[in-house]
Amino acid sequence: MIVTSFGVTLLAGAVSLPLALVVAVAITEILPGKVKLVFQPLIELLVGIPSVVYGYLGLTTIVPALQRLFGGTGFGILAATGVLFLMILPTMTSMTIDSLRAVPQKYREASAGLGATRWQTISRVVIPSARSGILTATVFGMARAFGEALAVQMVIGNTTVMPTGLVESATTLTSVLTTGIGNTVMGTAENNALWSLALILLLMSLVFNLLIHLASKKGAR
Amino acid sequence: MSPERIDKVASTIILGVAGLIGLVVLSLLIYILALGIPHISWHFLTSEAESFAAGGGIRDQLFNSLYLVVLTLIVSVPLALWAAIYLNEYAPDNQATRLLRLAIEVLSSLPSVVVGLFGYLVFVLKFGMDFSLLAGALALTILNLPILTRSCEDALRQVPYLQRQAGLGLGMSKWRVTTKIVLPAALPGIITGAILSAGRIFGEAATLIYTAGQSAPLISYTDWNPFSPTSFLNPMRPAETLAVHIWKVNSEGLVPDARAVSNGSAAVLIITILLFNLVARYVGHRIKRHLAK
């Protein structure tokens, strides 16, 4: 379960990071200001969409698509990754936009004054100086993915086995909690095991917090 | 390749990928709405949910969601405001304050299932509230408090320091400066933050499964006595919200038209949250203009 939890989180984070970065760069550095006025509320809306809706969306679109592509049930790690990716992309994008915007305009002007092209400015000046913010956004998005329960539970298939492939049914810490707690009796070994899982989840979220702190402190220096 | 060419190519790729992502996300949004909107009818919004038969509505779930948002805001707005005023206006910059801020930050990143389980242990079992709206509202408060505190604090921080100095210079006490000058100026930000957080509470499900419960017992909308067990105002009754309903009909439900019900419910959820966002924007603008006059 822990392996699946981490796997799903890391995969979602790894897919979202470059895409969030690309969208953020496009919005802050390349597109004209008017586009921002459209994008900003749209991203805010996407951040606000409940996770259940993302889960349901995964259930109706991603799972059948995977079923057609790979056979089997379609439920599994890949479906969960897809749902989490959709879920954390808006959050990460908006945080990345904030950190790119925090880079002083003077840096860009100085870089342009040295004769650098826009791409050189973006890749060598803007992104490096916003690095800690981007890192924070990534960890934050992954923390959210790690703790997400219902959306994952709806698409991952819920079988407690060591995952062997990306399209096999699996289960994460959070999904087993949502399905299990209500069906076990207080005080039994199974129920106690579930509460211990909740503790692990709590500790993991503390670790993620620590990482965010480290990331932002690194940038402050 | 010359730097100019690389620049052109890179810009094109970035714009292309960004456009593609925007298109995919937008089409997903439209897909949900297109699936759901045809299913939204007056009947759907105003009839009870069915457990086994097709054709159930979401009246109770929709009301529960809204009522829960109101209850949660009643509890969390004053708390968050007090905390924000303390942190921004009074708190000295020392180790204890920093610890407090850290605690708020940790609280804000707790997985919602963990908050739900905490609510189950403390409110439902220990305080004997059973599965109830009140337990759900308190659990949501835990989830909502750090976010709301931060947005209140941001709103307070945006009030220029000069205004405070002017107030103090006129001989007002710090408390009067806070309530008469800082709070009114920060009000648009606070209200916007509260409405945006209302949207977030509205869609929350994981926290509620084990606190507000998953059942919607028969309630009567003509019974205005909040202490009667069948009254719609009674905060001690178990209540299933819209988001929980979507989850339940998809994973455990027995209704034959689960698809249609969840399509409709998902669309209602998104439209409501869109409304919350728009209202937040509008109110923020409106009050700002009103104050500027």
TrEMBL record, chain A:
Family under the similarity heading: Belongs to the binding-protein-dependent transport system permease family. CysTW subfamily.
Coiled-coil regions listed in the entry: none
Keyword Transport recorded: yes
Membrane topology summary: Multi-pass membrane protein
Any one biological process term the GO annotation gives: phosphate ion transport
Transmembrane segments: 38-57, 69-89, 193-215
InterPro entries listed in its UniProt record: MetI-like, MetI-like_sf, Phosphate_PstC, Phosphate_Transport_Permease
Originating species: Limosilactobacillus pontis DSM 8475
An example Gene Ontology molecular-function term: phosphate transmembrane transporter activity
Name of the protein in question: Phosphate transport system permease protein
GO cellular component: plasma membrane
Function of the protein: Part of the binding-protein-dependent transport system for phosphate; probably responsible for the translocation of the substrate across the membrane.
From TrEMBL, chain B:
Keyword annotations from UniProtKB, A to Z: Cell membrane, Membrane, Transmembrane, Transmembrane helix, Transport
Membrane topology annotation: Multi-pass membrane protein
Record-annotated ABC transmembrane type-1 domain positions: 62-280
One of the GO biological process terms: phosphate ion transmembrane transport
Domain of life: Bacteria
A single GO molecular function term of this UniProt record: phosphate transmembrane transporter activity
Signal sequence residues: none
Subcellular location: Cell membrane
UniProt-listed InterPro entries: MetI-like (IPR000515), MetI-like_sf (IPR035906), Phosphate_PstA (IPR005672)
SUPFAM superfamilies: MetI-like (SSF161098)
Transmembrane segments: 12-37, 66-87, 99-125, 131-148, 181-202, 264-283
A cellular-component GO term for this protein: plasma membrane
PANTHER family linked: ABC TRANSPORTER PERMEASE PROTEIN YQGI-RELATED (PTHR43470:SF4), PHOSPHATE TRANSPORT SYSTEM PERMEASE PROTEIN PSTA-RELATED (PTHR43470)
Family: Belongs to the binding-protein-dependent transport system permease family. CysTW subfamily.
Protein name per Swiss-Prot or TrEMBL: Phosphate transport system permease protein PstA
Annotated organism of origin: Limosilactobacillus pontis DSM 8475
